[in-house]
Amino acid sequence: MESSVRDRRIAAVIPLAALLAVLLSFWSLPFLALAWLLSRRKAPALVREVMLRVIDLFLSLLNLALAAGLVFAALDVVARDGEIERLALINRLLLSFLSVVLDIYGAVSLVFSSVRAWRGQLHDPKLSMGILQALRGRRQVAV
Q: Hey, how many other C-beta atoms are within 10 angstroms of the C-beta on 51?
């Protein structure tokens, strides 16, 4: 993918700015998607792809967190009905652990995306499901 130095710099700032925006307020994520929708015609190709992959990563992590939350909520109901205190404690610990792991993975993946964009390359996070890429019509190759 051919890109100028200016394009690579803009693409490198996007993951870090998205990380900062989400850390400040989780509700800023829809504004990132809105920015992608507004800039997808005029932005350079590298910037569009990096922004798309960042939004895909956030959506994928959100889906994973929601699925794990449902499992942990069901486990919590079982623990309360059976009055098993240790199971409820383990449930809370696992939920906290998973939350920290997903946060760290998201932050590290965004830093990798920024570094790879600075080099003019694309980073494809392993936990990214490619939701928006599939909706856009790009094929995802199963590994």
A: 25
pTM (2 decimals)?
Answer: 0.82
Q: Does position 139 have pLDDT exceeding 70, yes or no?
A: no
Condensed to tens digits (0 to 9), the pLDDT of residues 40-86 reads 788 888 888 888 889 888 889 889 999 999 999 998 888 888 888 88
Q: What is residue 141's DSSP assignment?
A: P
- What gap in Å lies between CA 113 and CA 3, rounded to an integer? 16
Provide the H-helix boundaries in 25-81. 29-39, 45-81
Domains in the chain: boundaries: 5-136
Taking the C-alpha atoms of residue 7 and residue 46, their distance in angstroms, rounded to an integer, is 7
| Alpha carbon distance 108, 102 (integer Å) | 10
Report the C-alpha gap between 87 and 98 in whole angstroms.
Answer: 16
The residue type found at 141 is: V
